[in-house]
Amino acid sequence: MSTVVLLLVTGIGLGALYFLVASGLSLIYGLMGVLNFAHGSFLTLGAFAGWEVARRLGPDTWTGFLLAMVVGTLAGAAVAALTELLLIRPLYNRHIEQVLVTVGLGLVTVALFEGVWGTDAIFISGPGWLAGTTELLGARIPNDRFLAIAVAVAVLAGLLLFLRHTRYGLVIRAGVENRAMVTALGIDVRRSFTLVFSIGGAAAGLGGVLASQYYGYVSAHLGATLLIFAFIVTVIGGLGSLGGAAVAALLVAVPQQFANYYLGVGDLIAVLALAVVLLVRPSGLMGAKA
Protein backbone atom coordinates (compact mmCIF):
# COMPACT_ATOMS: atom_id res chain seq x y z
CA MET A 1 0.00 0.00 0.00
CA SER A 2 2.80 2.43 0.90
CA THR A 3 4.41 1.88 -2.49
CA VAL A 4 1.17 2.72 -4.28
CA VAL A 5 0.78 5.92 -2.23
CA LEU A 6 4.39 6.89 -2.92
CA LEU A 7 4.04 6.36 -6.67
CA LEU A 8 0.70 8.16 -6.74
CA VAL A 9 1.90 11.29 -4.93
CA THR A 10 5.24 11.45 -6.74
CA GLY A 11 3.34 10.98 -10.00
CA ILE A 12 1.13 13.94 -9.14
CA GLY A 13 4.28 15.92 -8.32
CA LEU A 14 5.75 15.03 -11.71
CA GLY A 15 2.46 15.99 -13.31
CA ALA A 16 2.72 19.37 -11.59
CA LEU A 17 6.04 19.97 -13.36
CA TYR A 18 4.56 18.87 -16.67
CA PHE A 19 1.69 21.28 -16.17
CA LEU A 20 3.94 24.25 -15.40
CA VAL A 21 5.68 23.76 -18.73
CA ALA A 22 2.57 22.73 -20.67
CA SER A 23 0.52 25.65 -19.33
CA GLY A 24 2.78 28.10 -21.16
CA LEU A 25 2.65 26.06 -24.35
CA SER A 26 -1.12 25.76 -24.15
CA LEU A 27 -1.62 29.42 -23.31
CA ILE A 28 0.62 30.66 -26.13
CA TYR A 29 -0.89 28.36 -28.73
CA GLY A 30 -4.49 28.76 -27.62
CA LEU A 31 -4.38 32.55 -27.58
CA MET A 32 -1.81 33.24 -30.29
CA GLY A 33 -1.67 30.15 -32.50
CA VAL A 34 2.10 29.81 -31.99
CA LEU A 35 3.78 26.43 -31.42
CA ASN A 36 6.88 27.41 -29.47
CA PHE A 37 9.55 24.71 -29.71
CA ALA A 38 11.99 26.93 -27.82
CA HIS A 39 9.82 26.83 -24.70
CA GLY A 40 12.19 24.39 -23.02
CA SER A 41 14.93 27.01 -23.23
CA PHE A 42 12.90 29.30 -20.97
CA LEU A 43 12.75 26.49 -18.42
CA THR A 44 16.47 25.77 -18.61
CA LEU A 45 17.40 29.43 -18.31
CA GLY A 46 15.12 29.78 -15.29
CA ALA A 47 16.76 26.75 -13.67
CA PHE A 48 20.29 28.07 -14.25
CA ALA A 49 19.39 31.61 -13.17
CA GLY A 50 17.80 30.27 -10.00
CA TRP A 51 20.81 28.08 -9.29
CA GLU A 52 23.23 31.00 -9.74
CA VAL A 53 21.27 33.04 -7.22
CA ALA A 54 20.84 30.20 -4.73
CA ARG A 55 24.51 29.20 -4.70
CA ARG A 56 25.53 32.77 -3.90
CA LEU A 57 22.99 33.31 -1.11
CA GLY A 58 23.18 29.78 0.21
CA PRO A 59 21.48 26.87 -1.56
CA ASP A 60 20.44 25.33 1.75
CA THR A 61 18.61 28.43 2.95
CA TRP A 62 14.99 29.36 2.33
CA THR A 63 16.06 32.87 1.41
CA GLY A 64 18.27 31.56 -1.38
CA PHE A 65 15.67 29.12 -2.64
CA LEU A 66 12.73 31.55 -2.61
CA LEU A 67 14.78 34.22 -4.34
CA ALA A 68 15.88 31.58 -6.86
CA MET A 69 12.20 30.94 -7.66
CA VAL A 70 11.61 34.66 -8.17
CA VAL A 71 14.69 35.16 -10.35
CA GLY A 72 13.98 32.01 -12.37
CA THR A 73 10.44 33.21 -13.01
CA LEU A 74 11.62 36.68 -14.07
CA ALA A 75 14.36 35.25 -16.29
CA GLY A 76 11.87 33.03 -18.10
CA ALA A 77 9.45 35.94 -18.55
CA ALA A 78 12.14 38.30 -19.84
CA VAL A 79 13.61 35.96 -22.45
CA ALA A 80 10.10 34.96 -23.57
CA ALA A 81 9.16 38.61 -24.09
CA LEU A 82 12.32 39.21 -26.12
CA THR A 83 11.62 36.10 -28.18
CA GLU A 84 8.14 37.34 -29.02
CA LEU A 85 9.27 40.87 -29.82
CA LEU A 86 12.30 39.99 -31.95
CA LEU A 87 11.46 36.63 -33.55
CA ILE A 88 7.76 35.77 -33.33
CA ARG A 89 6.03 39.09 -33.91
CA PRO A 90 7.31 39.44 -37.53
CA LEU A 91 6.11 35.89 -38.26
CA TYR A 92 2.47 35.87 -37.14
CA ASN A 93 0.31 33.78 -39.51
CA ARG A 94 3.50 32.24 -40.96
CA HIS A 95 3.47 28.97 -39.06
CA ILE A 96 6.22 27.11 -40.91
CA GLU A 97 8.63 29.97 -40.31
CA GLN A 98 7.61 30.08 -36.64
CA VAL A 99 8.39 26.39 -36.23
CA LEU A 100 11.76 26.71 -37.95
CA VAL A 101 12.77 29.75 -35.91
CA THR A 102 11.73 28.29 -32.54
CA VAL A 103 13.34 24.92 -33.26
CA GLY A 104 16.54 26.71 -34.25
CA LEU A 105 16.42 28.86 -31.14
CA GLY A 106 15.98 25.79 -28.98
CA LEU A 107 19.06 24.13 -30.51
CA VAL A 108 21.18 27.27 -30.28
CA THR A 109 20.32 27.93 -26.64
CA VAL A 110 21.27 24.38 -25.62
CA ALA A 111 24.70 24.94 -27.17
CA LEU A 112 24.89 28.32 -25.43
CA PHE A 113 24.04 26.83 -22.04
CA GLU A 114 26.65 24.13 -22.54
CA GLY A 115 29.24 26.76 -23.39
CA VAL A 116 28.45 28.78 -20.28
CA TRP A 117 27.74 26.11 -17.67
CA GLY A 118 29.31 23.01 -19.21
CA THR A 119 27.93 19.78 -20.63
CA ASP A 120 27.78 17.85 -17.35
CA ALA A 121 24.83 17.99 -14.97
CA ILE A 122 25.36 20.17 -11.90
CA PHE A 123 24.02 18.50 -8.78
CA ILE A 124 22.29 20.84 -6.37
CA SER A 125 20.77 20.90 -2.91
CA GLY A 126 18.01 22.89 -1.26
CA PRO A 127 16.60 23.80 2.14
CA GLY A 128 16.56 20.98 4.64
CA TRP A 129 12.77 20.60 4.60
CA LEU A 130 12.71 20.08 0.82
CA ALA A 131 15.35 17.39 1.12
CA GLY A 132 13.31 15.62 3.81
CA THR A 133 10.18 13.49 3.64
CA THR A 134 6.70 13.44 5.15
CA GLU A 135 4.91 10.23 6.06
CA LEU A 136 1.55 9.77 4.34
CA LEU A 137 -0.40 6.52 4.77
CA GLY A 138 2.84 4.68 5.52
CA ALA A 139 4.77 6.15 2.58
CA ARG A 140 7.67 8.58 2.95
CA ILE A 141 6.94 11.31 0.39
CA PRO A 142 9.72 13.74 -0.59
CA ASN A 143 8.63 17.22 0.48
CA ASP A 144 9.62 18.85 -2.80
CA ARG A 145 6.73 16.98 -4.46
CA PHE A 146 4.26 18.76 -2.20
CA LEU A 147 5.81 22.11 -3.10
CA ALA A 148 5.56 21.39 -6.83
CA ILE A 149 1.89 20.41 -6.47
CA ALA A 150 1.06 23.53 -4.46
CA VAL A 151 2.80 25.83 -6.95
CA ALA A 152 1.09 24.19 -9.95
CA VAL A 153 -2.35 24.60 -8.33
CA ALA A 154 -1.60 28.26 -7.58
CA VAL A 155 -0.41 28.90 -11.15
CA LEU A 156 -3.52 27.27 -12.64
CA ALA A 157 -5.83 29.31 -10.41
CA GLY A 158 -3.90 32.50 -11.12
CA LEU A 159 -3.98 32.03 -14.89
CA LEU A 160 -7.71 31.30 -14.94
CA LEU A 161 -8.46 34.34 -12.78
CA PHE A 162 -6.24 36.51 -14.96
CA LEU A 163 -7.88 35.46 -18.21
CA ARG A 164 -11.45 35.65 -16.95
CA HIS A 165 -11.49 38.55 -14.52
CA THR A 166 -8.87 41.12 -15.55
CA ARG A 167 -8.89 43.77 -18.25
CA TYR A 168 -5.80 42.39 -19.94
CA GLY A 169 -7.23 38.90 -19.83
CA LEU A 170 -10.39 40.05 -21.55
CA VAL A 171 -8.37 41.98 -24.14
CA ILE A 172 -6.28 38.91 -24.89
CA ARG A 173 -9.32 36.68 -25.34
CA ALA A 174 -11.08 39.28 -27.47
CA GLY A 175 -7.95 39.83 -29.56
CA VAL A 176 -7.77 36.18 -30.39
CA GLU A 177 -11.41 36.11 -31.47
CA ASN A 178 -11.33 39.30 -33.56
CA ARG A 179 -8.01 41.11 -33.62
CA ALA A 180 -9.14 43.72 -36.18
CA MET A 181 -12.10 44.79 -34.07
CA VAL A 182 -10.05 45.16 -30.90
CA THR A 183 -7.40 47.16 -32.76
CA ALA A 184 -10.12 49.42 -34.18
CA LEU A 185 -11.13 50.24 -30.61
CA GLY A 186 -7.66 51.69 -30.03
CA ILE A 187 -6.28 48.77 -28.02
CA ASP A 188 -2.73 47.62 -28.75
CA VAL A 189 -3.23 43.86 -29.14
CA ARG A 190 0.47 43.31 -29.80
CA ARG A 191 1.31 44.40 -26.27
CA SER A 192 -1.16 41.88 -24.93
CA PHE A 193 0.40 39.08 -26.97
CA THR A 194 3.83 40.00 -25.60
CA LEU A 195 2.31 39.69 -22.13
CA VAL A 196 0.99 36.22 -23.00
CA PHE A 197 4.45 35.10 -24.05
CA SER A 198 5.91 36.56 -20.86
CA ILE A 199 3.40 34.70 -18.69
CA GLY A 200 4.17 31.44 -20.48
CA GLY A 201 7.90 32.03 -20.05
CA ALA A 202 7.43 32.89 -16.38
CA ALA A 203 5.60 29.60 -15.75
CA ALA A 204 8.38 27.72 -17.54
CA GLY A 205 11.12 29.53 -15.61
CA LEU A 206 9.40 28.76 -12.32
CA GLY A 207 9.01 25.16 -13.45
CA GLY A 208 12.73 25.05 -14.19
CA VAL A 209 13.65 25.95 -10.61
CA LEU A 210 11.23 23.36 -9.21
CA ALA A 211 12.35 20.74 -11.75
CA SER A 212 15.99 21.19 -10.74
CA GLN A 213 14.94 20.59 -7.14
CA TYR A 214 12.81 17.60 -8.17
CA TYR A 215 15.62 15.88 -10.08
CA GLY A 216 18.45 17.17 -7.90
CA TYR A 217 20.44 18.69 -10.74
CA VAL A 218 20.42 21.34 -13.43
CA SER A 219 21.78 20.85 -16.94
CA ALA A 220 21.59 22.33 -20.41
CA HIS A 221 19.21 19.55 -21.49
CA LEU A 222 16.74 19.79 -18.59
CA GLY A 223 14.25 21.88 -20.57
CA ALA A 224 14.45 19.74 -23.70
CA THR A 225 13.68 16.61 -21.69
CA LEU A 226 10.62 18.08 -20.01
CA LEU A 227 9.47 19.81 -23.21
CA ILE A 228 8.82 16.46 -24.88
CA PHE A 229 6.37 15.41 -22.18
CA ALA A 230 4.90 18.91 -21.98
CA PHE A 231 4.00 18.69 -25.67
CA ILE A 232 2.41 15.28 -25.06
CA VAL A 233 0.38 16.77 -22.20
CA THR A 234 -0.63 19.80 -24.28
CA VAL A 235 -1.85 17.69 -27.18
CA ILE A 236 -3.69 15.19 -24.98
CA GLY A 237 -5.38 17.94 -22.99
CA GLY A 238 -6.34 19.89 -26.09
CA LEU A 239 -4.32 22.72 -27.61
CA GLY A 240 -5.28 25.94 -25.88
CA SER A 241 -7.04 24.39 -22.87
CA LEU A 242 -5.44 25.10 -19.48
CA GLY A 243 -7.88 22.79 -17.74
CA GLY A 244 -7.14 20.10 -20.28
CA ALA A 245 -3.41 20.52 -19.69
CA ALA A 246 -3.91 20.08 -15.94
CA VAL A 247 -5.98 16.90 -16.38
CA ALA A 248 -3.65 15.50 -19.04
CA ALA A 249 -0.58 16.17 -16.87
CA LEU A 250 -1.98 13.83 -14.23
CA LEU A 251 -3.14 11.26 -16.77
CA VAL A 252 0.36 11.13 -18.24
CA ALA A 253 2.57 11.44 -15.16
CA VAL A 254 0.83 9.07 -12.75
CA PRO A 255 0.70 6.03 -15.11
CA GLN A 256 4.24 6.90 -16.17
CA GLN A 257 5.45 6.59 -12.57
CA PHE A 258 3.71 3.25 -12.05
CA ALA A 259 4.92 1.89 -15.39
CA ASN A 260 8.49 2.99 -14.66
CA TYR A 261 8.47 1.27 -11.27
CA TYR A 262 6.81 -1.99 -12.23
CA LEU A 263 7.73 -2.38 -15.91
CA GLY A 264 10.43 0.18 -16.71
CA VAL A 265 8.46 1.52 -19.70
CA GLY A 266 7.06 4.79 -18.39
CA ASP A 267 8.05 6.82 -21.45
CA LEU A 268 6.39 4.26 -23.72
CA ILE A 269 3.17 4.58 -21.73
CA ALA A 270 3.16 8.34 -22.29
CA VAL A 271 3.63 7.94 -26.03
CA LEU A 272 0.93 5.27 -26.23
CA ALA A 273 -1.48 7.54 -24.36
CA LEU A 274 -0.79 10.26 -26.93
CA ALA A 275 -1.41 7.86 -29.79
CA VAL A 276 -4.71 6.64 -28.33
CA VAL A 277 -6.01 10.17 -27.78
CA LEU A 278 -5.02 11.24 -31.30
CA LEU A 279 -6.84 8.24 -32.76
CA VAL A 280 -9.98 8.54 -30.63
CA ARG A 281 -10.22 12.31 -30.14
CA PRO A 282 -7.73 14.26 -32.28
CA SER A 283 -8.76 17.60 -30.73
CA GLY A 284 -7.68 16.40 -27.28
CA LEU A 285 -9.66 15.68 -24.14
CA MET A 286 -10.87 19.24 -23.61
CA GLY A 287 -10.02 20.83 -26.95
CA ALA A 288 -12.60 22.28 -29.28
CA LYS A 289 -13.71 19.90 -32.00
CA ALA A 290 -12.79 20.94 -35.51
Largest sheet: 2 strands, antiparallel
What global shape is seen?
globular
Mean pLDDT: 86
Beginning-to-end CA distance, first to last residue: 43 Å
For the largest beta sheet, what order do the strands appear in spatially?
1-4
| Rg, alpha carbons | 19 Å
Number of domains: 1
Order of helices and strands: HHHHEHEEHHHHEHHH
Number of helices, counting only DSSP H or I runs of 4 residues or more: 12
Helix content: over 70%
SS-derived structural category: mainly alpha
Strand residue percentage: under 5%
Secondary structure layout plus pairing:
Blueprint: H1 2-32, H2 39-57, H3 62-88, H4 95-117, E1 122-123, H5 128-131, E2 133-136, E3 139-142, H6 143-165, H7 167-177, H8 179-184, H9 189-215, E4 217-218, H10 222-237, H11 242-262, H12 266-280
Antiparallel strand pairs: 1-4, 2-3
Helix pairs in contact: 1-6, 1-9, 1-10, 1-11, 2-3, 2-4, 2-9, 2-10, 3-9, 6-7, 6-9, 7-9, 10-11, 10-12, 11-12
Sum this structure up briefly.
This protein has 290 residues and is mainly alpha-helical. It has helices at 2-32, 39-57, 62-88, 95-117, 128-131, 143-165, 167-177, 179-184, 189-215, 222-237, 242-262, 266-280, and strands at 122-123, 133-136, 139-142, 217-218.
